[in-house]
Amino acid sequence: MLHIDGLTKRFGANTAVDAATIEVDRAMMVGIIGASGAGKSTLLRMLNRLTDATGGAAHFDGTEITALEGAAKRRWQSDCAMIFQQFNLVPRMDVVANVLHGTLNRRSTLATLFSLYPEADIHRAIDILERLGIAEHAPKRAEALSGGQQQRVAIARALMQDPRMILADEPIASLDPMNAQIVMDTLRRIHDEDGRMVVCNLHTLDTARRYCDRVIGMRQGRIVFDGTPEQLTTGVARDIYGADASFSESATSTEIREHAPAPVPA
Ligand SMILES: Nc1ncnc2c1ncn2[C@@H]1O[C@H](COP(=O)(O)OP(=O)(O)OP(=O)(O)O)[C@@H](O)[C@H]1O
């Protein structure tokens, strides 16, 4: 299914991703973890061709995606929808229009210019919003929604493309723990119900353990762990994050906890 072979990206003297090799033979939910700067975003960006690789190759279902150009490259970018930490919605546009944006690459420039959407697409957009539990917000401007709701709109926009793979780059990094859980539940559901492959960059260990079938650990551009959530022990995590014996898992946790009330000023 997805074969990544020696994929490398250099920025000048800095090697952001160093000969990454990953074999995924069936659609699953893959989590990529690692400290800030480990190369997680760069790896995803090479897969959806926002960034060109310096070396190596990636294949999806037999097609060398790192070699695609022109229309074939655009088709692939539509086949692997990307979700970002900052949602990347058009804030002043309503929710439905944001979701319909997911069809832009298969519509004519003229239709896009005049916001002419086929009725079937509008119905589909509403159906997807319903599925994600946010249809009641359809007429609102995106900027009026909470972060968690906005991220679900971004997921709806991705689904509108009917992608073969979803790449999520730190989709919960800007969310509070409650909304983080809703968004991760949504991504997991999409995987379970649609059988779509989901590759998700995550900051936090507990999220990777809880939601992913397979976890890949990156450190300084290299893949230093590739295994099941059960194999991701505290010792392994310490290697991935490059921390010493004082490494504490809670430092990378998004678990929902009761917060102690703030002290009342005297
Ligand atoms: N466009 C760029 N130009 C130069 N260097 C870059 C560029 N993008 C990323 N880098 C560098 O590549 C390395 C990997 O960055 P990347 O953003 O992929 O890491 P990350 O694991 O996703 O980090 P974070 O969790 O902070 O997003 C870093 O050293 C970063 O400074």
UniProtKB/TrEMBL annotation:
Q: Which GO terms describe its cellular component?
A: membrane
Q: Name one Pfam family in it.
A: ABC_tran
GO MF annotations in UniProt: ABC-type phosphonate transporter activity; ATP binding; ATP hydrolysis activity
Encoded by which gene? phnC
Please report the name of this protein according to its UniProt entry: Phosphonate ABC transporter ATP-binding protein
Query: Sorted alphabetically, which PANTHER family does this protein's record hold?
Result: AMINO ACID IMPORT ATP-BINDING PROTEIN, PHOSPHONATES IMPORT ATP-BINDING PROTEIN PHNC
UniProt source species:
Rhodosalinus sediminis
In the Enzyme Commission scheme, what number(s) does this protein have? Answer: 3.6.3.28
Mind listing the UniProt keywords for this protein, alphabetically? Answer: ATP-binding, Cell membrane, Hydrolase, Membrane, Nucleotide-binding, Translocase, Transport
Enzyme class, top EC level, equals hydrolase
The residues covered by the ABC transporter domain are 2-245
Q: Does the keyword tRNA processing apply?
A: no
